[in-house]
Amino acid sequence: xxxxxxxxxxxxxxxxxxxxxxxxxxxxxxxxxxxxxxxxxxxxxxxxxxxxxxxxxxxxxxxxxxxxxxxxxxxxxxxxxxxxxxxxxxxxxxxxxxxxxxxxxxxxxxxxxxxxxxxxxxxxxxxxxxxxxxxxxxxxxxxxxxxxxxxxxxxxxxxxxxxxxxxxxxxxxxxxxxxxxxxxxxxxxxxxxxxxxxxxxxxxxxxxxxxxxxxxxxxxxxxxxxxxxxxxxxxxxxxxxxxxxxxxxxxxxxxxxxxxxxxxxxxxxxxxxxxxxxxxxxxxxxxxxxxxxxxxxxxxxxxxxxxxxxxxxxxxxxxxxxxxxxxxxxxxxxxxxxxxxxxxxxxxxxxxxxxxxxxxxxxxxxxxxxxxxxxxxxxxxxxxxxxxxxxxxxxxxxxxxxxxxxxxxxxxxxxxx
Length: 417
What we know:
- The protein has helices spanning 9-15, 30-36, 65-77, 93-98, 116-121, 141-147, 153-163, 178-202, 210-220, 226-235, 248-256, 279-291, 300-327, 364-374, 402-411; strands spanning 20-23, 42-46, 52-55, 61-62, 81-85, 106-111, 132-135, 260-265, 272-276, 330-335, 338-345, 350-357, 380-385, 392-394, 397-401.
- The two termini are 36 Å apart.
- An 8-stranded mixed β-sheet has the order 9-8-10-11-12-13-15-14, sandwiched between helices. The protein has a 7-stranded mixed β-sheet with strand order 4-3-2-5-6-1-7, sandwiched between helices.
- The chain has 15 helices and 15 strands.
- A hairpin with a 6-residue loop joins strand 8 and strand 9.
- It is 42% helix and 18% strand.
């Protein structure tokens, strides 16, 4: 049976009383959420050739945006709900025409490409002030752990770190261990991941240039500083010099598309680290750099050590983002000393928690070593392991295991405000 991921965004969309824009990159589950969990009277899916397929309207196949508006309008005027998925594929005139029906009914627009926000909310847009934006990104940590609650906690945590990309859910088999699962994912992603990234540029009337691809590959190779990324591109002849300004706009564009995260470096006023937002993409491009898996399938045995390292890195990120969500803070990194994650809050970046993830064997000495790195940070300190030999504190550090983290996720009741 395929894993069903229940997402908290459903309630946020259902609770919104008026017209909304759902936006986010492709393959994060927007269409699945809207078609399966949001009550609607008509659902329109727009293809790249601008032909629309509809349910709940007088025609199931609509070839022009004018005809589509003529069918949507009466439904909205009756106070009912219409979903238009991938609306950005329609001509500009569609928004002009459909805006005339506001505030009747409930219109839900969904779009994937870069630029959908500016198209709806930019200066001169007919939809300005008529709709509210709701972002759909990777599955929230608490949501994926709730969805995996029937699995053993030691399995739920590492699988959850990757299943935040919901397109992986149909590939998950009961009883399969993580490394063979990821090896299969990487093999099937050899064409899919680059195509997914390229599709975002295509639908924004841009091509996936060598510079963008170079930035993505550099981040996958664990280059987190803009200057290091630029130097690598300069060595390849893709940018004119190695200064960080050469790649900043590319990084910003990738952030806007939900492909890249920017994380503050703890204790540094302005320094930022950049990383690929998805653990799946991060793993794929790291293994592409080390084993050329983007060119040909490689045996698991050859890349097992590096794949384990990717899982460890992915777990560190996942646990940090879980605590950031439930503590209503943000993740920061420290590279000197190396600390897996620090949760801070507010513009003052007050530290709430410092943590290390040791997804394997550990000793009291490991906990004390972590304690020595974070002793000058005035905050809660946690050491996360698959299964704790005994719960409680070691050298003033909380030792939390997978079962404790699943419990934190399943008992979380949402933001306090």
